[in-house]
Amino acid sequence: MKTKSQEQEQFIAKFLEGRKQSRSGATPFQKGDIKTNNFLIEAKIKNKLSKSISIQKSWIDTLNKDRFAMNKEYSALAISFGDPSENYFIVNQDLFLEIMEVIDFIEKQGE
Hints:
Layout: H1 4-15, E1 19-20, E2 34-35, E3 39-45, H2 57-69, E4 74-80, E5 88-90, H3 93-109
Parallel strand pairs: 3-4
Antiparallel strand pairs: 1-2, 2-3, 4-5
């Protein structure tokens, strides 16, 4: 029987066309929960449906360290309030600015 975290990781990997790390990144050489070409993603989920989740800075610090070790350009923390198929991604402000600039560029191309 799959745990909620396994369901979440599998959903995100499929959704982003990435790969779920074996043993949820608990090996010395394979860090994080999901990896794509450019991203390392750490996934966190509440066991029961909830309206809030506490985010620990240590999760982000570890993810950034692991991102560097895995030679990935970007990282994101995926959080879910209990539904493995509904996720929110936390990225740093520099990446968010890049995302905004790409969206603005795409919108201007359509004008």
